[in-house]
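Subject: complex prediction, re-run

Hi both,

The earlier run crashed halfway through, so I resubmitted it with identical inputs.
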Amino acid sequence: MKTTRAALSLRRYLLLGILVPTAVFMLVNTVTLYRQALAAVNTAYDRTLLASAKSIGEMIEVEGEGTLARFRTNVPYAALEAFEADNRSRMVYRISTVQGTLIDGSPELPQWSGRLPDRGPYAALVDFYDASVRGEDVRVAVLLQPVASSRGMGMVTIQVAETLELRQTLARQILIDTLLRQSLLAAVIALIVVLVVQRATRPVRALSVQLRARAEGDLHPIDAPDLPRELHPLVDATNQVMARLHDLLANQKRFVRDASHQLRTPLAVLKVQVQSALRGDIDQTQALREINGTVERATVLANQMLALAKVEQLRQQADAPVIDLAAVVRAVALDLSPLVADKDLDFGIETLPAPVRAHEWMLRELVRNLLHNAIKHAPEHSVLSVRLHTDRQHLVLIIADGGPGIGDELRARLFQPFSAGHNRSGSGLGLMLCREISTALGGQIALDNRLRQGRVVGLDATVRLALSLS
Amino acid sequence: MRLLLIEDDPDLQTSLRRTLERKGMQVGVCADGRHALAQWQQMTPDVVLLDLSLPGLDGLEVLARARQTGMTTPVLILTARGTVGDRIVGLNTGADDYLSKPFDLDELEARIRALYRRAGGVADEAVHEHFSCGQLRLDNRSGAIHHGFKVLDLSPRESRLLRALMQRPGRALAKEQLFDVVFPGASEVQYEAIEVVVYRLRKKLAGTGTALLTLRGLGYLLKAEA
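This time it finished cleanly. Structure:
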C-alpha cells in the first residue's frame, strides 16, 4: 500500500483543502481592507487639516503699499481648537512668505520647501506630507494662499501640522475589528467543514467497522444502501472481487477434498492387493505386478498435483526466457518414442521454429501431457500427427490422434479434475494442468473431435500461444 | 564397491540396503545429517546416496560441507522434492547426479555404476556390457553385431547406424543425431542420405526379430518385434 499522499484521510484532505486557501484568502482580504480603511481615514483627516489651513488663510491681510507692503495676520489663539478632533491631537501652524520668512505661528514647524504635486481633487495649491515637530510625528497640510487687497497682492505659505495619535488609534481599532471579524468567519467555516466531512464520511467508517468485524472467510457481498452514490462503483467492484474469491475458494476446497480422496484410493487398492496376496488368493508374482501398476498410477497422480502447484509458483516469476517450442516438441516426442513404438503408430511430426516466452518446464509439461494422452487413446497402427505452425503473431500446435474422440457429456467437464468421466482413463489432472499452463502463458487450449462424413475419426488437441517477437 | 546410504526413512533404508547388498555392494547407512559427514570420512565410500530431507542437518548442507572439506566422492541425490529449483541447487552444490523419488531400482543401480565408472573405479561384473534387441546382440567391446551365432554383414555406415540404435533400444534417435553418427565430419548436411542407409539396413534386418521404425519428421527407432 502507498503511504504519504495516498494515506491522507479524506477528512484531513477536505479540511486542509478548504481551510488553507480560505485562510490565505482572508489574510489577503484583511490586509486590503485595513489599507483601504486607513486611506479613507487619512483622506478624511487631511480634508479637516486643509479646512483649518484655509480658515487661517482667511485671516491674512496685506498692509501698506509698494515696498512697504507686508502681511498682517490676526489668528486668535484658539483658532485651531475648532479643528482638533479631541484633546489627544495637538495642532500647530506656521504662516510664512513664499521665501520662507516667518510671518506668524510656530517656528518649530520646518519651512515647507517642496514642489506642489498635481492633485486633481484640490484645485487650490495644496499638498500633504509627513514631518516631525519636537520629535513627534505629524501630518502637515500646506496651502499656498494668494492674499489680495485693493492695493496689492502676494502669496503666503500656510502650514498646519497635527500629531498622529488619533489617526494611529483609529487605524489600530480598524485593524482589530477587521481581524476579529475575519477570525470569526474562519472559525465558522472550519466548524461547518468539519461537520459536513464528518457527516459525509460516516457511512464509510460504518462500512469499515462492518468489514473489520467480519469472520475470516466471510465473503458475502457488502450491503450498504446508505452509502453515497459516488462510492457505489467501489462497492460493486469489491463485491465482484469477493464473488470471484468465493468461487476460487470453493474450487480450491473441492480440489483438496477430491485430491485427498484420489490419493487415498490407490492406498486402499494397495491394501487389498497386498492382503489378497498374503492370504494366497492370487499368485504372488501377479499380485506384485498389480501392486507395481497401482504404485505407478499413484506416482503419476502425485506428480501431476505437484506440477499444478509448480505452475502456480512459476506464474509468479516474471523472468521467463525465450524458448523454441519446436525444439521442446521434438525432445518430448523423442522421450515418448518408446510408447509410440509399442503401439506401432504411424507417427509424423512437422514443426516450424516457434519462439515463446515461457519456462521450459511448462512447455515440456504441456506437450508431454497432450502427446501422452494422444498416444494413450490412439488405437494400434493408427495415425498420430504433431504439427506446429506459426503465423505472424501466434503459433498453433495441433496433436491429432486417431482415437475415439470425446463424448458430449465428457466435453462439458473436460478440464475439471476427478470428474466421473475421467475415471477409466485417468484423473483429468493432466488436462487441467495443460489448461493452467496455457492460461499462464496467455494462450488457449481446445480439444475437438475430428469428423469425416459425420463420423468421429479422432481428436485434435490444439494449443494457441503468442509468439515472442524480438 | 563401497556405498554410503544417507537416508532417514527406515523402510526405504532397509529395502535399498538389501537390494544393493545383493548386487554385491558394501552398504553403510546413516540416518542423521549431523553424523553423515563423520561416517563419510571414516568409511571413504566409492559412491554416496544422499537424501535431501534429513533430520539434524539438511542433505544439501551435508553435501556442501563435504565438498568444503575436500571430499570428492561422487554423490547421487535422492529426493521427493523433485522441483527444478532443487535440482539446480543440488548440482551446483556439487552433486553428480539426481534421482527423484519414487525411482526405479534398475535405474538406481545403473546410475550408481555409471558414477562409479566415471570416478575411475573398475566396474566389477558389469564391465563387459552388451545390448540386445530381438535376436540381435551388440558386443560393446568389439562393436560386432550378432544374429544368433552369425555376425551381421553390414557396411560401416549401416553398422554405425544400427549400433547407435541398439544402444538405446526402443527409443527413437533424432535424424540429426544419427546423421552425425553415420556421416561423421560430413560438410554438407543432407538428411535424405540417411534414408538410403535405413532402407538398406531394414532389408538386412528382415528375420532378426527387430523392426526399424520411422517417425516421420523426427527420427528412427529400433524395436523388438512381438
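Chain B touches chain A at residues 82-84, 102, 170-174, 213, 215-219, 221, 223 (CB under 8 Å).

- K.
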